[in-house]
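Q: Could you fold this chain for me?
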Amino acid sequence: MRLGLGCAQLGNLYHEISDERAAATVDAAWDAGIRYFDTAPHYGLGLSERRLGAALRDRPRDEYTVSTKVGRLLVPTDEGGMDTAEGFVVPATHRRVRDFTRDGVRRSIEDSLDRLSLDRIDIALLHDPEGHTEVAFREGFPALAELRAEGVVGAVGAGSKDAGVLTRFVAECTPDVVLVAGRFTLLEQPAREELLPACAAAGVGVLNAGVFNSGLLALEEPHDKLPYEYGTAPAALVDRARAIAAVCERHGTSATAAALAFAGGDPAVTAVVVGADSPDQVERNAALFGTPPPAALWPALAGAGLLP
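A: Sure. Below is the predicted structure, expressed as structure tokens.
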């Protein structure tokens, strides 16, 4: 099991960070032994890819893995202002255009290679294909497979928070991996019933991301001002996160540590992808990832009705 760095925060997710802090965050991940980094054009209109590429530029290329995504082309615009509608705080120099066509996929990969300053992408994923499944599965995925055959990308798959769409994707396509966001966590497990068994049966690796559910499991005291999937956290989920945190505290651990351990607990999961926007967050997550909670925690959470 490996720990990966989710790089949405490098694209100024929810608040701005400096180039220096972004670079220091990647450096801290490297120093902690992390060698897998997940990004996307969507994250800060390309800012995440540019910052990640700059931070990795002097690292040995064969020692790390980068995943990025296709499905949102960045088209220049002169509208001005700030691009904050989807959670990122960056100047609105571009607009996102959903495009899963063959040409769109190839253009997206070419643009990402340029922003990342790389000559290949290790993992390329269809990004949030829900609502566009026909073109994404019938045209976008074959385009990724072509790029894989050409050696431009390595593994190919899809990333989404919709476990049902990913389950259908595994059944209808021949992916190497899927990235599931926020759907196999200590707080929510809709991916448990169908997606994870389907991936295990097909030999498809699962990259488990969003394991703190946008921060609800990342704090000792979850509160109702936290975000949840680019919006406001529902009260019922905040209450559930608080209850989980209380049980964890009684067992001498934290919801954060338990969330990391749970996220990697299914055999189908090959990597746990955790975001961070500072070196301190990276160091904390890496330390907790290597320190599993006491075994008695899991039956206690189940007994409290907080796990199946």
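A (continued): The chain has a mean pLDDT of 95.
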